[in-house]
Amino acid sequence: MAETKHDSAPDASHPHRGISLMGLIALVISSAIGSGVFALSSDIATAAAPGPALIAWLITGIGFMGLATTLGRLSIVAPDIDGVVGYARAGFGRFVGFVSGWGYWLSIWIGNVAFGVMLVSAIGYFVPALSGQLEVPGLVLISCVNWLMVLLVNRGVEEASFLNAIVMVCKLVPICAFIVAMLFVFSFDVFTADFWGTLAANMTADPGTGSAPSQIVSCLMVMMWTFVGMEGASVLGHRAERKSDVSRATILGCTALVVIYVAASILPYGYLPREELAQIGSPSMPYIFERVMGPWGGTFISAGLIVSVLGAWLSFTILAAEAMCGMAQMRLLPRRFARLNTYSAPTACLFTTGLMIQALAILMLFSQEAYRFAYSLCTASIAISWILAAAYMVKLGLSKTGRTAMGITPVDIGLALFAVAFLTIAVLVAGMELLMLCCIAYVPGIVFYLMASREQGERALSPIERLFAAAIVVIAIVTIVLVVKDPTLISG
Fold first, then answer.
1. What is the mean pLDDT of residues 260-278?
2. What pTM was computed for the model?
């Protein structure tokens, strides 16, 4: 391991080059396109018929384009602030900044566990012994990849980002091939056969489960998961060649994501009935493409899935380390996490993240639906950071300084408000119990925050923040009691 030093400057033998616009776009797309898109067809079909799914995508697409535009505008109107954590701290104080940062860090490394579970499933297409529920051989594979990623990023964040641009191209080829194939086999009659899911509802004991609103709600967590990582350019904005590239990369990357996701999840409804899509297996894209193109099609998509997961895992490892290091630089965590090695990589943050991934991967052995649980928990965690970043834009826009000196427009405020409302409602209706589970992971973070405050000689918590922190601890205790009484909360 390279000798570490404080975060003043990297070694002169490793000059700072900065991440280009294409590198930032690649980071947005590669971070977000991991495993979710390859399972979208069956995951969405399980939740909804084509009509409700399209409405859910319309709402989700507008919500995330609003968030992307907000993050892009914030990089321009507040160029001295980096990332979603910085926006929360600047707008609402140190402790809220910590809440945002810790939630973001949690979501990223939990997302890596989800990638690990999906990687095992993808390799299971070729090695049947790894298919099915996560077991010890799969855990060994996840562990090896986890520590290889940590060591790779520890050799330099910007070098790893360059590799990400290559991975982005490799992962988009099979996805685009799948979308083109779905266009050729699309049948309007199949697509409209049960457009609103009313036929499926009539066959169940509880017709309410098939109502359009309930189907839309069931889609939200799946759809939101596929956008985790879209804030990557904002998080690494301080490493960009040009600060203005952050806004362009975020908006262009998110636009591409919306188009890809809608096409990949909706077009298969025109090839197979919803019931078949829901039961085809996960990840579903290889099995659907195999039906269309023959055995080589499944092999082609599965290989693309493996590359995609590895690329997203690399991106998430970078983002997790940067988030933790950024919190330490903002004095929200002890200063040891702000130290960089001779390659400008935060070694302590990387190895802490690697240890947490390892621990949760072991816990996933006891979950019946490890992938679903991991990605849902990841999405609930990161939603807090997204909401606070968008709320900061609203706060700026409503101030006189924001409207005059910063040039924030009513459109900017409206998009940010919609993003806040969409994300808040979506998490409350689709993942309230997941937020409660997240509170357990916040407790050790609060200890680190108090240590950092003492280290800096600053007052840790205001009276209102003490109530906020106490509420998190109380919810964590209640959740632990509930989990003890009902282990299915974490076992799926």
1. 95
2. 0.87
